[in-house]
Every structure is written in C-alpha cells, then in structure tokens.
Amino acid sequence: MNRWHTNAHTGEKPFKPFGCSVCGKGFRVKRDLMRHIRVHTGEKPFGCDVCGKRFKEKWDLTRHIRVHTGEKPFGCDVCGKGFKLKGNLTKHIRVHTGEKPFGCDVCGKRFRVKRDLMRHMKDHTGEKPFGCDICGKRFRVKRDLMRHMKDHTGKKPFGCDVCGRKFKGQARLTQHTRIHTKEKPFSCSFCGRTFNIVKHLNTKHWCLTGNSACSITRQ
Predict the structure, then answer these.
(1) Right CATH number for 19-68 from 3.30.160.60, 3.90.470.20, 3.30.1360.120, 1.10.3720.10?
(2) How far apart are alpha carbons 211 and 219 in whole angstroms?
(3) Who has the most CB within 10 Å: 16, 68, 84, 147?
(4) pTM score > 0.85 for this model?
(5) pLDDT band at 212; cut points 50, 70, 90
C-alpha cells in the first residue's frame, strides 16, 4: 500500500525527503520542491504569448490565457452561465441551491462565499484596514476606498452613451440610463405603480389602496 496513503489513516507524520535549502520546508516529491523554489528565486518560466505576462505555474498561465480568448469552459447546468474558473462555477451554483456554507461565529449569519464572511466580520470587529492617503478616512473594504478616492480626484469614469453625462460609479450610471430607456423595474405590490429607482418606491410613494407603505417587487 502507498506509504503516503497509509500515513493519512495512521496519523503518522508524512515522509518528506526533499527539503528546501532556503527555508527548510519539506516535500514528498522532487517536482513539488522545484515548484516551491520559484517562491524564493522569483522565476516565472511560463509566459503569455499575447501580452507577455509571466507566471510561476503553468496552470496560472492557462487560466490567464482565458482573459484573451474569452473561453469559459465551466458551465452551469441550471442557467447555462459560463465561467473561466471551476471555483467560480462552484460559488455560482450556490445561487441556485441556496447553500451558505460560511457562518459567522458571532451572530450566526451565513454566506455563500468566504470573502463575504470576512467582510461581514469587520462589522463586529470594527476593523477598517483600507485608509485614504489624502484625508485619512478608513474603510472596511477596498471597493469603498476606491469609490471614496473619486471624491478627491473628481474622476467620473462611467459615461452615458446617450447624453454623455458622466458618473463616479456604475450604479449611478445604471440609474441614469433608465431616464433614456424609460425602464421602471421596481413596482408596488399593492397598486402596481412602477419606479425607475428603488428609493423612490421606498420614500416617495404611499399606497393609498393598501393604506400602508409599499412593498417592493422587482420586475
């Protein structure tokens, strides 16, 4: 029987005869040691023929090539959506199954992906690792910092194809575009009145028919 397999059952420390001369880390096969050595040497033997970017691992190059080819070999059996990485397909499947394997130890709230759990934990710890170099304001997630930086630079990279008006964020551009398309995706479940922005449904509309505030239905 394979010695490595037996160790998995007996709990014995695995035999790792190939050791790194730099950090001492051991490996079971020489191939893994040679791959590890690149961490110390910085060697990146696998290069992209399109853009020249280089990688330590052949698999990383294969994954990168899909950026250029647009290939999405991993498809969802439910909705048909394709993905470049198998891991992204696994995360997507949870949208259909409702599975939320990552749970918060503090409040019990559960999440589909680990990244969302890590972001949520900062609500409990108050940690804000991303700071603005200009005003010092701090943020829990990098995305919020990048959005904040536009307040200082005045940069508005999202432009309307119809009228040319520019916006700091994609969400605001999406809202604005509905002025041109006349799209109103948010409707009152009591009276059926529709709105192009959800906050208008929440704050400006009082359904007289139901004599109560509207509840949201997205069309």
Answers:
(1) 3.30.160.60
(2) 22
(3) 84
(4) no
(5) very low
